[in-house]
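call fold(seq) -> tokens
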Amino acid sequence: MKKRNIAIIAVFLVVIAAALLLPSAAKKGPAGVPGAPGGGAPGTAAAATFTVRTAAVARRTLQDYIESNGDIVVDATVKVYPQVSGEIRSMKVALGSDVAKGQLIAEIDPSTPGSAYALNPVHAPIAGTVTSSPLPVGSTVTASSAIMELGDVTDIEAEAMIPERYVGVLKVGLKAAVTFEAYPGESFPATVTRVSPVVDAASRTKTIRLSFDRADPRIDAGMFAKIRLDTVAYADRLTVTEGAVLSDSSGSYVFVVNADGTASKRAVTTGAGVDEFVELASGVSEGELVVIEGASVLSDGAAIKDITAAAGGTGASK
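ret:
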């Protein structure tokens, strides 16, 4: 009985030993050494390949600009003053009214308690349109109080206040595009005709006036405008999209695509930047492909897969 038990235990131990040895043997080739069949050298992991998008370095003109809000104003206006102090008893016109030179536009009561009652008329000094809301009836005025403004609304301009930091590029002759919420999708060309010689100390701005290149009856005095003012043009510059340019402690760099499907890190010098484009003053040549998306994870010599062509772009697929 004891011999039988010993035999069973022995068989059990043999089975356990075989189970432990089989995984080790499976890792060895026929020659009994680790590696590929036949005892070859240990295998190496494949290098990582990074998916990127690319674009060619191209020449273009970078047009810098300033964006500002503005107002449509009458080019020349005349303020209307009463000849006497008193109370406005009647107002004969309203904002937007057309008046003739010499037309009665208001009446002032200059009388004081105990004096004879007599209205003093106010006449239009010029022919034009009322361009500012007249003072309401009942207002007390003096001979130095303007009660309204008159102007020629067919001669209108855009007026904008430009921040002080841009005064170095302001000059007469600059071109602009003026847009209005009332006319979405339309742009009205204009030209700077006047630049204030001083900076307003309170607002730290300089006022400019722009004349429209073509008269348009849809543009009214008093309208709110958005103005894009073209300033400096950087002509014929090598450029890429700004996402292609990275920087570290050594300076700016891009990744240039090589013919073997790798990307090389290359130092560059940047210049002007407008919107999504930046000038590359040195370091690359026209037509070279650079990585514009996915560059932040690359290292020098990294393997890449360019999916630009598949996405409808112009880069070379690797």
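The longest helix spans residues 2-26.
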